[in-house]
Design goal:
The chain has a domain of 262 residues: FAD/NAD(P)-binding domain, CATH 3.50.50. Helix content is 37%, strand content 30%. It is built from 13 helices and 20 strands. The strands form three sheets. Strands 5, 6, 12, 13, 14, 15, 16, 17 and 20 form a nine-stranded mixed beta sheet that branches. Strands 1, 2, 8, 9, 10, 11, 18 and 19 form an eight-stranded mixed beta sheet that branches. It has a three-stranded antiparallel beta sheet with strand order 3-7-4. A hairpin with a 4-residue loop joins strand 9 and strand 10. It starts with a strand and ends with a helix. InterPro entries: FAD-bd, FAD/NAD-bd_sf, Ubi_Hdrlase_CS, UbiH/COQ6, UbiH/COQ6_monooxygenase. Keywords: FAD, Flavoprotein, Monooxygenase, Oxidoreductase, Ubiquinone.
Length: 408
Amino acid sequence: MQNTDITIVGGGSAGLTLALLLARQQLRVVLVEQGPAPSAAAPAYNRVSALNMASRSLFQQLGIWPQLLAGAAAYTTMQVWEADSFAKIGFSAEQQQLEALGYICDNEHIRQLLYSQLQQYSNVQCYFNVAISQLKQGEREVMLQLDNNELVLSQLLVGADGVNSFVRQHMQLPLTHWDYQHTAIVAKIRCTEPHQLSARQVFLPSGPLALLPLPEPDVCSIVWSAETAEAKRLMALDNTAFEQALCAASQAVLGPVKLQSERQAFGLTMRYASSWQRGRVVLVADAAHSIHPLAGQGMNLGLMDVTALAQLIGEQQALAEDIAATAMLRRYERWRKAEAQSMIVAMEAFKRGFSAKPALAKLLRGLGLAAVDQLPLIKQQLMAYALGLKGDLPELVKNQGAVVDSLP
């Protein structure tokens, strides 16, 4: 039997980040993951995330940013437009007085670097390739039994185990969800024209297509979110036909393209747990919420969840109070629920706004985007929130301006 302060279920980026934050606070941590441990390998860019400035600041302070940046693409401009319309808007790092608008990073590379850093701490024990047999909680502790017969007792258990969270289901925490009726197709492509470190997104009648720059000057990652029937049709095409369809959908903005990886398809569902904690168990990141990928904010939202939770736990430590006190966990829940709700509402409004097909709706979209594009102050405010420079941020990343300015 192992006694620890905090058990984290889930070894994705959110769970590993939380483990590292808590390890730095001198807490004893056990991390449990049903999959294998991250292994060192060159980034493959099969699944990527767009990290904003708040996430950059977090990883800088955790000591992994230089290595992560070496395998990332810093995009300096963003172009958004609607097919068959004059609706368009552009953003640039120069307008924001920043060196980049964000960073396209390989998801598995993030995990590798976090795990490598975590191994420096003797107060963290990681269990990989294990499942949970039992989860029970009492008044002062949570008991976890693993399928390797190991027992773990902790003061707090954190569910960071993704959209199909075992912890959320086992604790019967209610979940609100709706099917976006979209499927995301992801792949890596080589383009005829250089991407010039610009992130591009075109809204098509069936859904948005994003072209995200990767470190090679002519290679991009695509996230093509389409109505499910259309996505199935696209996935059924052979490579040549798919490449032609992709070139047409992107209006050949980067010329003819060639697939550089297998295509993968993922159904898109909005999930939102109406309760994020029960007793000494709490949810973070995708276990608590998932959103449409059209703005690329899912990873950033989850990373701020765990940073906020670590901050509140640290405040409890400083007061020599219970690190799983109900009042503290509810404070975390209120704080991060508000941020998640704002993002869910914004993404749904954006998706529905661009899904409306009547000519009048298309005209209004065009006029609205054209107006915003000519109003620098409004554009700066919009981008400040997307970049993680504004909002109810954790203290660790609030003063990120000085950090960002000092970085190469």
